[in-house]
Amino acid sequence: MAPADGSSGPAHIEAAHAPPALPEPVSKPGRQRGFIDRAMTPRAPISVRARFLAGLSVWAVILLGWSALTYGGIMPDIFLPSPTAVIQRAIEMFGDGTIWPNIWSSVQVILLGFIISSVVAVPLGLLMGTYKIVQAALEPMVNFIRYLPVTAFVPLFILWIGLGLSQRVAIIIFGTFFQQLVMIMDVVRNVPDDMLNASYTLGSSRRDVLTHVILPAAKPGIIDTLRITMGWAWTYLVVAELVAADSGLGYMSMQAMRGFQVDKIFLAIGIIGILGLITDTCFRVLRARWAGWAA
Fold this sequence. Notes:
By secondary structure, the protein is an all-alpha fold.
């Protein structure tokens, strides 16, 4: 028998059990969603132009503050050089070529130390994150060593290895390797177990699961780990070159400090920052090309 209100029975029941409609986002009447609304919405995308202007505005504020402190006479030149002084020093050192050997020396130390550390840390971290027995064997030792200060080992490296390039590379390796190991292990451990179980169900071997499931799924996180630890390698560079070095940006800073050439110190710091930004951009491009699906 049809219901008294004239509606069909099944349709009436289906409508009664249908989930409630999701509420529409609340917005002010008569106004379109503007830039501030988008910017203050969590994870809402912004345009390339807005991203560029936001970053540029922060640098403009820093430069204005620096200029006000120096050109306004608030800070003496011996403590804080003016932007003009740093630019003039850069023109001078790039013009006569005296800065290029220091840049190349620092880049060489960073590349050698970081590559050697990464070549060992990536497969070992992959094994630690995949096999519980490897993690149980190595994690206590790794967690102990990664909290040790790198600067405390500088005299020991000089005693064990001697002076020169090898000692500086060893400091970079020691400062980045154990951090890479723990971070890569955590990235691999975060691969969902459902992916592994589905692979076993489809007949994959343990080797196939490691090489065709775990490694590709962890690839974006591994690249991000390398990008982050590259920043740490640049910070350890100054530690490696402050003692018993005859070239490099850290060595240049130490020599400038002895002569109260603060503009030269700022130039070295700026070059390290620019080189670090270049390597960071390279890793971002690498991630976009090799793991663009995870963006």
